Amino acid sequence: MARIPMYREPLHDFECSRNRLRNQEKWMGIQRKGWVAMIPHIDTTYCVAGVCLLLVAAISFAQEAENGQMEKGQYEEELARIRPLIQSMALRRAKDPKEQELARIRALAQSVTSGRPEDVKEEELARIRALAQSVILGRAKDLKEYEEFADEIQQKWSKKNREYHARLMLELCRPLSSGCFGGQRQYEIARGYALSALGEPDAIPIEVELELIGHVMTDTFSRTRPRGEDFARRRRIDVKARLHAWKRLKDAIDPDWDPNEELQVNPMPPAATLLASGVAPEAIEDPALRAEYEAAIETNRKKIEKHAQQHRLRKWLKRFPKNAERYIIRMYSKRPLNTAELEQYLAEYGGDVTAKKRILQEISAGTDKAKP
């Protein structure tokens, strides 16, 4: 038997076309020989009813798939529309005109090449490029104008896919929390957008939730800071959001994760195919072997994704609990004092017993020092 060459890339497109043609011929053969031959032996009533049910199920599935794909495409377009505007505000702070122009070109290039779906048509890509080029440096100095822009996206996506909505709100919050506009109001606006995305925190990825928490802040220093019951209400919201994210982060950590685990970029195809790793599944003619290979690729993808996520979550675990602990202590050390309320929240969300004890001790010590 002749040995099949291991490198067959030049023939890949031809083989894929040939395999697709063979599959179509096989399916048409089944239709001609199978269904047509069986129809005379099937009761007409049952046959018609069965076909109707299959058509209804197929149409329903197709509509759900199309709606999901359309929503994903809309999200990617929205993200591409937001990023140039945000990047323009960062560029505005550059001092060197040459560096500013270079950064502008890089920002425009990135805005049209990153994060877009593979099936974006050329005309859609041209529209995104035109939109990116229309962004004028310094255009977003007006906070009211930026807020109107953000409100439009907020209203459009608040009732749609929760993850897409949360990611878009996170993009909008970043300039507001960076000090681009000046004044305290920008932080309050960022807090509102972040809380709108955290309405159902379990419906969004844990890492998105952790990043959004950074924008949920209450002013405790300026002259216009909230006081009394208004401050107490905001404190409750801020602290509960942090305790939820803290608990979720701890639960997401896999104690059996091995940081030194060896991972493979591409799994090997079934041995019977005699093909090298990394080959496209379409190159395998046998349906059973192709399905086996596709399942192996998906399993390997999930394994790599989980490994990378566990690595990132452990980075979050090093900094998020410390920051959350400091924030909680600072907020509950201010009047109106309500240690009983905090104890209730700490018990409700569980977590590190040592951290709970340390938080309460710090608050108690601070309260004692503040007494006359």
What is the gist of this entry?
This protein is mainly alpha-helical and 372 residues long. The protein has helices spanning 12-38, 44-91, 97-113, 122-133, 143-157, 162-176, 185-197, 206-213, 228-252, 287-332, 339-349, 353-370.
Helical stretch tally: 12
* Poorly predicted regions: 1-18, 25-42, 44-48, 94-99, 111-121, 127-140
User: Which class best fits the helix and strand makeup?
Assistant: mainly alpha
- Using only CA atoms, what is the Rg? 28 Å
**Cα separation of the termini:** 96 Å
| DSSP strand tally | 0
Count the domains.
3
Description:
The longest helix is centred in the first third of the chain and has 48 residues, at 44-91. This protein is 69% helix and 0% strand. 17% of the residues are buried. It has 3 domains: 61-141, no CATH class; 142-217, no CATH class; 247-269 and 277-372, no CATH class. The chain is built from 12 helices and no strands. The model is unreliable at 1-18, 25-42, 44-48, 94-99, 111-121 and 127-140 (pLDDT under 50). It is globular and about 75 Å long. The protein has helices spanning 12-38, 44-91, 97-113, 122-133, 143-157, 162-176, 185-197, 206-213, 228-252, 287-332, 339-349, 353-370. The protein is mainly alpha-helical and 372 residues long.
